């Protein structure tokens, strides 16, 4: 049956059709929908893991048991899972194991533009790279065949444009695949003696995969009218090249991005006058071509910064391109902002008011860095706020005490904040950690996590008690505040910073966008009392604006949280 599918949905369909029976992932844009979509198939067990390392290790365990497995993550998540990745590359698999990783060129929702292709080369495992949804299904099924044939985990690399674009697919039937587990200590116990014997196996596997890449149908050459230029490309860059050039020039499309063929590329290069490499981010294909002794044009023309587009490709390939109709008026800027009624807003207002140094983390609360709150000093990676706070306070010799906090979300804390807090307790830094608990994984689209009491499918499950957990790792001072209550927040922050020991503040209120959260009636402005002082604007709520010198509340956005009321000394903001 033919239908339109997002690239991520197509990967999920490929997992289903290939007989995958175990999926463990951590949500991360642009990869999240793969796991959400595959969870809808009752034949596939799917879960959210606390982090990507756990997800990969769980998927390996399922593979070891003889089941086809999958774990999914975004590019920075692969950093978290790198430890098991490099060793699983040595052990190989039993049931097929596919690792989905989605890159984010252009940083639409990420803190860097990491190129995950380097992981395939470094870990010495194959990587497939589909360019549309149809290929996403086909390549996922192929990945399992390669995984079992060559005894290796296989990386499936997506990117934002392929993950979140729709194209036509044709679906097929599911094929079950189960293998028997047999003990094999020499293969699976990676102590030095066994690992040394596995390394030559890995190198031979790479040579075998290079030979496969020479004839693999997913590495194809599409003829062109002119041999003056030949283009090697992959993924979404291939779509741009074909959109701009059509069949003007021959194109080699690489579906298997590692290992790449050698003789096939040499033959293609010999058939054209000039070899051009079109790829996003790093010079991965270009470096491979140069290692083969080929002269080529690549990053000297195409930047390693930001994603490509048809316009950029057309400009560098000297091809005419219709740019479309330009708007006569400039589009007003729309900077990111926390939602109206966001429970994080009151807390960040408190932190800014107290002029604190705030080490931030990854989540929608990172928007606390945006004016007018501008409350954050750093954002590095998942969990770095807690570990960084410890280093910051310890290295200052007491100078930072009472002036510095870390802010981390509930899901991020479960992901990689716990070990940082263990370090705080164990090595006794005078650190105050604030867990902003909005009862969901907000930034990636409201996924469940171990603190919510529900699993991926929405079924009730064990709920981690944050207060008990924090005390269990050695933190004696743990308290909960309501971020809608500014006075309570201010008092808690001051008292915990004044204490001469580690402490945790849990700022707890559910995300305002959760379906079960009931809102109060929107506030209204008493124009007779409002003097236009703009005190209510200090929290940066999108529901409040100044019109004609007076505050105005947008009743389509306001959830009646009352935070702005606490800032108005004249009582101009009131319930309707």
CATH architecture of the largest domain: 3-Layer(aba) Sandwich
Shape: globular
Radius of gyration: 27 Å
The helical percent reads 25-40%
Task: Outline the biggest β-sheet.
Answer: 7 strands, mixed
Instruction: Show unreliable segments.
Output: none
Total tally of structural domains? 4
Structural class: alpha/beta
Number of helices: 19
Quote the CATH topology of the largest domain: Rossmann fold
Overall average pLDDT = 95
CATH superfamily caption of the largest domain: Thiamin diphosphate (ThDP)-binding fold, Pyr/PP domains
Q: How are the strands ordered across the major sheet?
A: 3-2-4-5-7-6-12
Measured distance between first and last alpha carbons: 54 Å
| Oligomeric organization of the protein chains | single chain
Name of the top-level CATH class of the largest domain: Alpha Beta
Measured by DSSP, the beta-strand proportion falls in 15-25%
Number of strands: 22
